[in-house]
Amino acid sequence: MSAKDELEQIAQQVAQCQLCELHFSRKRAVPGEGPANAEIMFIGEGPGFHENEQGRPFVGAAGKFLDELLGKIGMRRDQVYITNVVKCRPPSNRDPKPEEVEICTKHYLERQIQAINPKVIITLGRYSMGLFLSNAKISEVHGQSFWVKGRLIVPMYHPAAGLHQLSLKPVIEKDFLRLPELLEKSRHSEQESTPPSSFDSDQPAKQLSLF
Ligand code: URA
Q: What's the whole-model pTM score?
């Protein structure tokens, strides 16, 4: 099956998913969107109010900021794949529960990553960072790159954090400005299947989890 077909199949399954309690309160599931051959994949936390209404990821205020950040590196959102750890909005924007994260990543996110096979995965916020770097602190590792099981992971602050805490905005912008360079390096790296202990002189991940 082509990556595009696989992503479409996952999206259909997500739309009908009843594997956890989040399906009771969702209006629309949000599988994610972007080209099947995207080199960059963004993983946020979970749909918010607007995403739940529209069935699309990052379409509210945080999404506008994400679009702006992409613009700063000369990219548009239709060139990247954008999704979330959980595909349905947790009621009242509560944190996703561990079992919801586990079910959703196992059934959908892992398959999306495999289908797209991105050069770089940007985690937005601590939930998605936690899938790859279980003991990391976002304040210590944001903007750095880590090889985790053959994938280049770059944890970043969630764009919403930059909207709530204005001092973080330039930090997030600076991290984003490194993306083209990281992408270029990952394109030429032959190390993907045998990860080096560190990449681009950044610290290696201390501990890995799901993937
Ligand atoms: N925040 C997220 O983590 N994901 C979205 O899709 C929107 C807001």
A: 0.90
